[in-house]
Amino acid sequence: MLGDYVWMKPEKKGQFDVAIGAQVVKIAADKLSVVDDEGKWQSVALSRILKVMNSTSIEGMDDMISLGELDEASILRNLFIRYKNKLIYTYTGSILVAVNPYQCLPIYTAERIKLYQDRNLGELPPHIFAIADNCYTHMRRDGQDQCIVISGESGAGKTENTKLTLQYLAAISGRHSQIEQQVLAANPILEAFGNAKTIRNDNSSRFGKYTEIHFNPDGAIVGAQIKQYLLEKSRIVSQANEERSFHIFYSLLDGLDAGDKQRLDLVDASSYKYLTEGSTAKYDGRDDRPNFSDIRSAMKELVFSDSEISDILKVLAVILHMGNIEMEAHTIDHLDATQIPNMTHVERIGKLVDLEPAAIVKGITTKTIIIQNEPTVSNLAYRDAVDVRDALAKGIYARLFVWIVGKINSAIIQPEAGSCSLIGLLDIFGFENFDHNSFEQLCINFANETLHQFFFHHIFKLEQEEYDAEGIEWNHIDFVDNQDCLDLIGKKPMNIMSLMDEECMMPKGTDQTLLAKFNTAYSKDKSYLKPTRHKTNSFGIAHFAGEVYYDVQGFCEKNCDTFSISLIQLIELSGNKFLRNLFQADIIRISQNNKRSPSISVQFRTSLESLMKTLSLCQPFFVRCIKPNEQKKSMLFVRGLCCRQLKYLGMMETARIRQAGYPIRHAFQEFVGRYWCLSGLIPPSKNEDKHERARQICENVLGSSGDYQLGTCKVFLKIAGDLHLEQERNRILRNVAIVQRHIRRWCQRRRAAAIVIKRFLLAAVRHGRFRAWRSFFLIRFRKLRRQLILFQKLWRTYLANKSVNKEDLGEQNLQNFPEIPQSERTEEIEGTMETPVRVDEGVRLRDKPKGAAGECRKSCPPAVAEAEARKGGMAAKQKKPSKFRNLIRWKSMEGKTPNAQSAALRGWEAANNGCQPWTTSNAELPEGELAPELTKDSKRKSVFLRENGLPTMEKAPREETMITTALIRQKLRRT
Ligand SMILES: Nc1ncnc2c1ncn2[C@@H]1O[C@H](COP(=O)(O)OP(=O)(O)OP(=O)(O)O)[C@@H](O)[C@H]1O
């Protein structure tokens, strides 16, 4: 149908040509017009159309194993579609495929780092940060060492992804300490001394690197260690066209100031033979001058001392001068010899490292051999002398590089880091197949074969063996095992490398005799390819990534790493301690009469074995880097090149096995321990059947999705199943955390409140405030009690008054109060004073029998009455409430001593306590008119009056008070 996507057969039938996707734009009778994935319009016969494309392949998927059709064409298209959309990362299960974008993408920001933190694999779009985070999480969760193996061709992006991983780990580990800065600072130094521009990559690592990052139990970086493998030291003396030597030389010559340059007798890069072989001292995209200052500051960060930096610069200058030593063929006594016509550079070297020029000349133009325990010196032919000179330069640089790595390690390795967990990052040279391959390529490809086996061993062999052992149902997938190839190069007893070693020991061993031995020994080996007509000096090996032919020229010399005794003796003569120190191990070896150092192949195999041992102890993650084009251009995806890399990396088989298999597995105990919260709220007991509980959890959460299988000891999960379980667990834990947070907050607040009170009381007691607070509360309590009593009183009074005839009590206000005749008043006074009547009895004074009162008066002489009045409360209480109570009182107290008057008043006042009398200030009473003694009495502040004889809560209005005061005056005057 129009608009449909289809698969088309490839035009060519090459090894790496696979079906291409296309969209149908026109349909004719026997032809289709299509636009293919590369944007080409084509009119194709129906026979070229293979099938309609699966919907998953049209837009592309984050994870290859989700593709509906899993073959080379769909995997390649998936990468292509995503690459076009600047999505350079894609998963194949837990394996990350990274296509080099050759441009800066805004996907490595601090926000991205935060985004990927604590996320499960597959939760977010594929990213190198997701792998790094997963690795970190696994390390912390399981306490197991982890490693990330980053592989791919030269220029595929291994080093960039290693750096990004390192930056991510430094960012999330959270301590931001000096050690993190030091670990990051190691990179520019290593790149300067170990990287160079090659045809394939402008910043190619010419050594393998395994970086171990050590973390403490809190997940913070506490140290690191770097291991280096097989530096390509031949680059020091020669480079292919358009290639350069190691970056440091160009940075040094561009970045050094004039004074330093003069001191080292250095000029610009174009003046040095060792730097001009490739005729590209400068290239776009690299500025060597600022790089040099970066390198120096990185060295400072890693505690390189000034004298060490100065010595390093001297050694580099020596290497450059060495390359410029010109030699001429010469004969002495009819024997080949070499002479040095111009001694300028020899003298410069001598000056820099404190060596006699004659000793240098002797060292590089002659050789010392021991014959019958006697050292015999012979001249070297021109070619041999050049080789010795170059060997000296290479030897010095290789040892300098080892020393620099050691120096970095001494700054970043933490002695206590032994007990910590680690994450290892392996950035090792990819598979190499050039037009001309030599000994180095053989070693590099051997390392790649070993890593490939590690990868396949992990992905296939172990996986299949484990499925079988656990009784998991799945379809077996065939894969190509590279064991034969490994055996041929370096594993079986008589392998290529051991034959090389043997040949190096032979006095007459040459590269040609070595090749002849290979041809004889491996003529029947499937992986060995005999020299062809065009490649007579080469042998081939059928690697997992294709056939590679190696030119044997220089094999023996490179493998033996001949660094003659004469040269070691020359170094020993140097007054430069740093230089002598670089050769310390060789000097010791020579002094112990051990003439031979282990061959390069032996050293390489030993370090490779140790690396594989380390990796096998870790939980590995794999990042497979793909180089999309050879031109280093952005947005250019060359299908053939990518397809080749996918094949070499075993991505097709990987995708299939990952799709069919269960990459994540947990022992029952561990699984139940982690996910028990997904099957109710009861934690697993010790004796519980963990298999049954694991089954319950899987059924609860994953149902019949097929994302899991239960083995005999383990739960096997697909990525999707694991992701789902993790998400569910996180959801439940989040909810639990919310509840816990509330409870904790409540408890915390209670505890905090108790602490505050306790603190306050302690402080109060300490500062004497406790009493103040106590009295404060007591005052409040008493006030409250008084108010209650008052209310009680008022209520009772009210009840009592209710039963009293209000008319008889005389409801007259003060304004129209009638004049009281003298007689009446006296009687009243007398009656009142002498006849105690209880108010609450509700009996009027006048109603009481006068006789009783009279008798009382008679029986009570004035002294007794006074005493009565002094008693206060009782007497006053018994008096009938009256407007004139005070007058009566004063009347009755007339003629008494001021003290008696005052006492009577106090008694009265006490009796009226709580009755809220009218009060008027003494000050308002005219001085001398009313009880002058009273006003003089400082304790008395008020005269108490009663209103209508009834107790009241209301305060007297001001005018009434004044009237009352006037009335008192009037009454008193009258009396
Ligand atoms: N993720 C990326 N983003 C931007 N540019 C990248 C990325 N990855 C790689 N590159 C570019 O590709 C170049 C080559 O990458 P890198 O040096 O990492 O390759 P390599 O695989 O380590 O090569 P070699 O094996 O030669 O060291 C880098 O210098 C950089 O310009």
TrEMBL record:
Where is it localised?
Answer: Cytoplasm
The identity of this protein, by name, is Myosin motor domain-containing protein
Q: Which GO molecular-function terms appear in the entry?
A: actin binding; ATP binding; cytoskeletal motor activity
UniProt xrefs under SMART domains: MYSc
The text of the family note is: Belongs to the TRAFAC class myosin-kinesin ATPase superfamily. Myosin family.
Pfam families on file: Myosin_head, Myosin_VII_N
InterPro entries in alphabetical order: Actin_motor_Myosin, Kinesin_motor_dom_sf, Myosin_head_motor_dom-like, Myosin_VII_N, MYSc_Myo7, P-loop_NTPase
CDD domains registered for this protein in UniProt:
MYSc_Myo7 (cd01381)
Q: Which UniProt keywords apply?
A: Actin-binding, ATP-binding, Cytoplasm, Motor protein, Myosin, Nucleotide-binding
Q: What is the lineage of its organism?
A: Eukaryota, Metazoa, Ecdysozoa, Arthropoda, Crustacea
Q: Name one GO cellular component term.
A: cytoplasm
Span of domain Myosin motor: 59-730
